[in-house]
Amino acid sequence: MTEAAAELPQAPEEAKAVFGEHFPQAVRYAELLADAGVERGLIGPREVPRLWERHLLNCAVLSEVVPQNTTVCDVGSGAGLPGIPLALARPDLKITLLEPLLRRTNFLQEAVELLGLDHVTVVRGRAEEVMGKVEPFHVVTSRAVAPLDRLAGWGVPLLRPYGEMLALKGDTAEEELKGARAALGKLGVVKTEVLQVGTGVVDPLSTVVRVEVGESPGGVRFAAKRAKAARTGRSRRRR
């Protein structure tokens, strides 16, 4: 056990309600973050004492706004936040953890296997690289990846028609959304809102920016890319 891992506090009572039968796996994941996560530089040692409130529960309450039985892509998953807490809280979801860095995907794969998360897949790559190679998702999630306008450019094209991107943001959520409206419009976004989730679980509440798309996720530019990818896929299957 690392020195940082010794600072991990006991799980709060709220965690038992949020994670239900998967609470033991949530505890194991917290221990993994506090130990190997710190050792490999995925999280800072100062985050360990607040892992539960600031990270695991802050991410898990995203489950309040994710539709039932949907596919989810966690873009820039890093140490698995919010994807793994969401997977622990919602076993009905099929979740893809998308991450470009090898050392992080190695950690994610180890975590998924250790926790027995059969409904979670780890994919190494950038969002723009996997478009057309994976089935479009109902929901795209992210946390602390990039400003909203840039994040939307990566995440929105991965959505299926009428899907939504759910981005965990901080106090600047409203400001970011206001500054990104033009870019979002070009990406085929038809509705946006800022939500507060986690009442009775986290304080302060988690802030989520919800971005919904219409029939053409990513706009005209990405519609052409998807059509080209589909034609390429059909051509390969005929060979």
TrEMBL record:
A molecular function GO annotation: rRNA (guanine-N7-)-methyltransferase activity
Pfam families noted in UniProt: GidB
GO CC, any one term: cytosol
Phylogenetic lineage: Bacteria, Bacillati, Actinomycetota, Actinomycetes, Kitasatosporales
Identification of the protein by name: Ribosomal RNA small subunit methyltransferase G
Keywords: Cytoplasm, Methyltransferase, rRNA processing, S-adenosyl-L-methionine, Transferase
E.C. code: 2.1.1.-
Matches recorded under InterPro entries: rRNA_ssu_MeTfrase_G, SAM-dependent_MTases_sf
Organism expressing this protein natively: Streptomyces finlayi
The keyword Transferase is annotated on this UniProt entry: yes
Function in brief: Specifically methylates the N7 position of a guanine in 16S rRNA.
Record-stated family: Belongs to the methyltransferase superfamily. RNA methyltransferase RsmG family.
